[in-house]
């Protein structure tokens, strides 16, 4: 009788602790998912906007693509690291060739500002 009572008490405590852990895990994963959806909405909103002037630096900022999707997420490799993401290489945007760019090429030389002396 005494062994059965202590075993039931032990099982009850273990089940309660497991439920607490699951609740904490669910709460944390829910917070991460909410952050992800907020970042996705923010990126979608910024992608349709014109460049804006950054108040901190005074530089005109364009849309950035720094947010990764969920399928890019990998387990952390360092101590205390929850996730890792693949490195994304910076690539320079392609520019038109000077001969084909109408803004750069001009058939006649520029006129002097004040006339010839």
TrEMBL record:
Q: Where is the signal peptide?
A: none
Q: Name one GO molecular function term.
A: zinc ion binding
A Pfam family the protein falls into = DPF1-3_N
Q: List the GO biological process terms.
A: nervous system development
Q: Where in the cell is it found?
A: Nucleus
Q: Give residue ranges for domain DPF1-3 N-terminal.
A: 29-95
Main location class: nucleus
Q: Name one GO cellular component term.
A: nBAF complex
Segments for region (Disordered):
98-117
Q: Which domain of life is it from?
A: Eukaryota
Which keywords has UniProt assigned to this entry? Metal-binding, Nucleus, Repeat, Transcription, Transcription regulation, Zinc, Zinc-finger
Recorded hits in PANTHER family, A to Z, give:
HL01030P-RELATED (PTHR45888), ZINC FINGER PROTEIN DPF3 (PTHR45888:SF10)
Q: What is this protein called?
A: Zinc finger protein DPF3-like
Which organism does this record belong to? Poecilia reticulata (Guppy)
């Amino acid at each position: 009788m005494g062994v059965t009572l202590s075993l039931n008490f032990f099982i009850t405590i273990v089940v309660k602790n497991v439920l607490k852990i699951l609740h904490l895990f669910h709460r944390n994963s829910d917070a991460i998912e909410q952050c992800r959806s907020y970042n996705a909405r923010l990126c979608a909103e910024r992608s349709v906007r014109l460049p804006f002037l950054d108040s901190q630096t005074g530089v005109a900022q364009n849309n950035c693509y720094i947010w990764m999707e969920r399928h890019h997420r990998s387990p952390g490799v360092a101590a205390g690291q929850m996730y890792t993401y693949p490195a994304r290489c910076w690539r320079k945007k392609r520019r038109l060739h000077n001969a084909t760019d109408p803004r750069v090429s001009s058939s006649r030389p520029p006129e002097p500002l004040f006339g010839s002396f």
